[in-house]
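User: structure tokens for histidine kinase, please.
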Amino acid sequence: MRRPTPEEQGSTMSKPLLLLVDDDSETVQVLGRMLADEGRVRFALNGTDALRLAREHPPDLILLDAEMPGLDGFAVCKGLKGDPTLSPIPVIFLTSHHDARIEAAALDLGAADFVNKPPVASQVIARIRAQLRARRLAMSLPRQDSPPSPATLPHRAPTILIVDDDAISQEVMRRALDGMGARILLAGDGEQALQLARADPPDLILLDILMPDQDGLQLCERLQALPRLRSVPVVFVTRQADPETEARALEAGGTDFVTKPFIPAVLQARLRSLLRSRRQADAALQAEREHWRRLGDDRMADILAVAPEALLTADAQGRVVLVNQAACRLLQVDEEDVLGHPLPRWVPAEALDGAAQSRRALLPVKRGDAIPVEVVRVQLGQDGERLTTVWLRDLRGQELAEKARRDQLRAETASRTKTLMLSYFAHEIGNPLNGILGFAQLMTLDSQHPLPPAQAERLQQITTAGKMLQALMRDVLDVNRFETGQFQIQSEPVELSSLVHDTLPALGTQAAGQQVQIDLQVEDQPLWITGDADRVKQCVLNLGSNGIKYNRSGGRLTVRLARHGDSAALSFQDEGAGMSPEQQAHLFEPFNRLGRSGQGHGIGLALTRQLVLAMGGRLTVRSAPEAGTTVTLALPLTRPGGGQGTPA
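Assistant: Done. Predicted tokens:
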């Protein structure tokens, strides 16, 4: 058995650890398969094992059955919440009893969410992702040794923003929150909600999905894009009860999802749970801010020394009093070389003069070319206590990226110019070419002045060459239309068997000239597709012409048309020199003749592939050196009347 590589082990360990607790082994198996892609999954079939596994390897989330023999889900949840190490782990109850009292009791006990059995995959996954997202946000806050207890948190009335365009729904929700002691803000549309949230940031937002100016999903993303509201829980309250809508709402950033009509006790329990977590997070954040303020006062110099951005600070006399490691690396000097020396010795004087606080400059260094940097200058204090701090941001990576973007723009401009020129030449050559072909046809049909056989043969060569040039101009124009998005495909029922029978004879003259025999193998039954008959003929002629052109003299071109599943497959198999893998890698590049001088113009196959894709089909190529080439065109079958589906 192959051992996982270190990279695979790292990828696996980066996934969240999920603990599934249920006394029904079949339910555990279903949940395990359902959540296999969401994280690393462990199982427990009873409450005692669940607590033991949680203490051995604390999971990132627990999915917990409410009713189990011995320790039931409520006892397990109480044990988890009573353990300071395990209490932050979100617990989602999963039960087959649709009882509002059980749900409210679980949420008041500290559960993060409550889901009914049988589990719906999209709903369960969306709620797990929402809880893991909230846990990551909480864990992104700086840790402290002893998180605050709920009993020590300052008590104040929470502010809840209700967003619903229906005044009756607003009133129903407001009454449902009676007894929570919350301050209620009401908004009838998205813009009013944004104004209220900016002016008076709430502790929690209740949000409807269906509103006239913008839906709740868009509004949720706009609200959470505001820095002050990024951690505010958003609870969707809506009449749309399907799992798909719930999954979309939670993926959009929602913390919870409640369907109307709701039970007030359950709604209050859910909101109390969210507010409790919110208050704990706010208190932890405030404690950590104070901790870092004290640490910053004591060790600011040490912190700046290891900052990733280059930094120098000079006193009122312009002498450098602080330089960090990043600045020493950028300037290619040691700290002792910089301290005490004038700041303009290291930073160009023009970047330090004037009112502009940010400008670009070239930074001279000991080795190599000068480095382009952005110089940001900040001054604090006055007179003799003034400090001038300069941040130096290396612009080499940014300027290389900008150069790459400019190069790409030039390449795209050149490509568009080439396309326009080809289109221009195709149009300008078309008029005289039509005249040449027209007069050649008149000379051929002039029975009163017949041409001698030798001249008639030369006239035929002129006509053939003109038609080849005409086909090339047509292909060039088609490629141009594809690249500019102006190409149009007609959609109509086409019987492919008869179309192939009618089209292939047009290749007879070319086949005779190359001494290639065409072998047509077509099933007796009609094969109907939906496509553009003229464009399908163009594909048949292009592929057939290639099969003749690149065949060996005296070879055979086998054309097969058969039904394969739900598709009609038309293949062209030649006996030519075939292609190497390197040639096949560039097969569909326009104007690339794959090193075959004098054979074709390198555009027919690329255009054919575009046409097939535009009609919902696919084009495959199988080839090997000295083994010939098989090109297969597959188009989906349809009914004779044009409806999709496999014909009887």
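User: Anything notable?

Assistant: Residues 6-11, 142-153 have pLDDT under 50 and may be disordered.
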